[in-house]
Amino acid sequence: MANEKIKVKNVGIQLYTVRKEMLADATGTLKQLAKIGYKELESARSEKGLYYGLQPKEIKKITEDLGMTLRSGHVHIDKDWDSTVAAAAETGQDYLICSSLPSNGQTVSNYKHVADMFTKAAEDCRKAGMIFGYHNHEYEFEKENGQVLYDVLLDNTDPELVKMEMDLGWAILTGNDPVDYFNRYPGRFPLWHLKDMDKAKQESTEFGKGAIDIKKMLQVADKSGMKYFFVEQEEYAGTAMDSVKHNYNYLQKLSI
Q1: 6 in a structural domain
Q2: What total of structural domains would you count in the chain?
Q3: For 23-48, how does the pLDDT look when each residue is reduced to its tens digit (9 = 90+)?
Q4: Which parts of the sequence belong to the Xylose isomerase-like TIM barrel domain (predicted)?
Q5: Does 5 fall in a domain?
Q6: Is the pTM here over 0.85, yes or no?
């Protein structure tokens, strides 16, 4: 039927959302997330390493046994980059995402330097069978001489080699329209962080309680080239697990 609405499937989560829980009991927390219904996972650096004290092959097996896929991971480009790439390849993940700007300086020249770093990192990832990407915050949308710094990264990297993980919350909170980016840079955004934002507090909140139109964003997923999205929330009204349950249930009630 032409008017048939599509349900949201393959809901992912960025594990930073449950960072304390993962550090306390990684396996138990993954079991809870699987029980809620989350299917796709993105890891983040922690006090216990890239995989919360688990070895790469361990987390691969645990997630697979739970019917989940470790799809991506947030890392830094630093002195341990080679071992970071090797460990990520062991997990079988598809994407390796630089989680924050690896060089200081809110200037066009620095962002061009970072773009060169990203090109090299992306080549390393490709050799290891993965796709490299970058996750934005809010500061990338600052300007120098009228030039948006985020655009410098996009314009100075190969669109086939360097992808972007659009954090929808930060993009919208800074007054930018993700759809504008999807139109100008089609196919560059295979990954998303899906979050709602409290504008007054300038922080994340549970779906439906903030300023982001979650449904509208999901309706333009094809335009961005989005393959996977990860629910992310850094602050909570109650417990982290209550919030991830709320967010999952909110998505299950949507028809796109």
Answers
A1: no
A2: 1
A3: 999 999 999 999 999 999 999 999 99
A4: 32-248
A5: no
A6: yes
